[in-house]
Amino acid sequence: MGRFEGRTAVVTGAGGGIGHACATLLAAEGARVALMDISAAGAGRTAEEITAAGGRAEAYVVDVTDPGAVDDALRRAEDDLGPLTLAVGAHGIVRNHRFLDLPVEDWDATLAVNLKGMFLLLQGAARRAVEHGGGAMVAVSSVAGRGPRATCADYAASKAGTISLVRSAALALAEHDIRVNAVCPGVVDTEMTRAIHRQKAEISGITPEESFAEQAAKIPLGRIESPEEIAGVVAFLLSADASYITGQALNVCGGLEMN
Fold first, then answer.
1. pLDDT tens figures, 8-20
2. Which helix (H) or strand (E) holds 74?
3. Residue 176, class by beta-carbon neighbours within 10 Å (0-12 exposed, 13-18 middle, 19+ buried)?
4. 126 with 170: CB under 8 angstroms?
5. pLDDT tens, 35-65?
6. Closest CA to 252 of 139, 126, 148, 95
7. Order of strands, edge to edge, in the sheet holding 135-140?
8. Which residues contact residue 79 at a Cβ distance below 8 angstroms, ignoring those fewer than 6 apart?
């Protein structure tokens, strides 16, 4: 469709899962894509896939909790690929602990990556988009940010914070013609989701397969979702088709949450 022909986009967490799906779709629709990930191998594989398909992408190893590293990567991305006006925050970590057993260091790490890292990305990308006359950004939150999570309070808090951050950024940046939205996935077929259920199963005394099936059974549409389904919604929110949408957090979860 070429909705992003001639545009430059940055995608964090581009080495796998939702980030990979977003990056490859944006590239397929014409964007030059800066791929940021803590994993050099992951970002490199995504870059190779995009390049092999005829797209343009560059990979950057970035710790999103480091302001200097984020700013340097964004600067290099513009030097390599052109004016940055689109951004997708798809990085994140999650661990499962009973509330009474949640280590403070895990709380700090989760909030640093998922929330501070999202702030640094959105702020850094927005500063560049202001210079270029506008843009659009999407943060990947989660339905976990919509309500309580007994075994991952830190993750739920970080994702609720992401929704709040998006709303504040959208309000602050509207005057610069920059739109900011969030998507809230549910149960997505990724390695992160499988890791979550291995941890939950250990806590609950069941198998990972039973844990996965138990959650999937709660989804009204009757199945888990693919990363590509999330990427399609992200691309819509970045595109001109969503030109009058900002400050929203859209559930993309098969009806798991309805609000």
1. 999 999 998 999 9
2. helix 67-81
3. middle
4. no
5. 999 999 999 999 999 999 999 999 999 999 9
6. 139
7. 56-61, 32-37, 8-12, 84-89, 135-140, 178-185, 249-252
8. none
Q: Determine the Cα angle at 221 with ends 215 and 224, to 5°.
A: 50
Rounded Cα distance, 36 and 59, in Å: 6
List, in sequence order, every residue forming a beta bridge with 182; answer none if it has no partner.
139, 249
Catalogue the E-assigned strands of the chain: 8-12, 32-37, 56-61, 84-89, 135-140, 178-185, 249-252
Comparing CA positions, the residue from 110, 125, 115, 230 lying closest to residue 162 is 115
Q: Which residue has the tokens 């149960």?
A: 187
| Alpha-carbon distances, residue 114 vs 89, 139, 142 (angstroms) | 9, 10, 11
Quickly tell me which residue has 């710790």 as its tokens. 63
Q: For 140, phi and psi rounded to 5 degrees?
A: -85, 110
The series of mean pLDDT values per 10 residues for the chain, 259 residues long, is 94 96 98 98 98 98 98 98 98 93 98 98 98 98 95 96 98 98 93 76 79 84 94 98 98 94
Residue 155 designated active-site: yes
- Catalytic residue, from 4, 60, 119, 155: name it: 155
203-206 LR contacts (CB < 8 Å, sep 24+): 203/96, 203/97, 203/98, 203/151
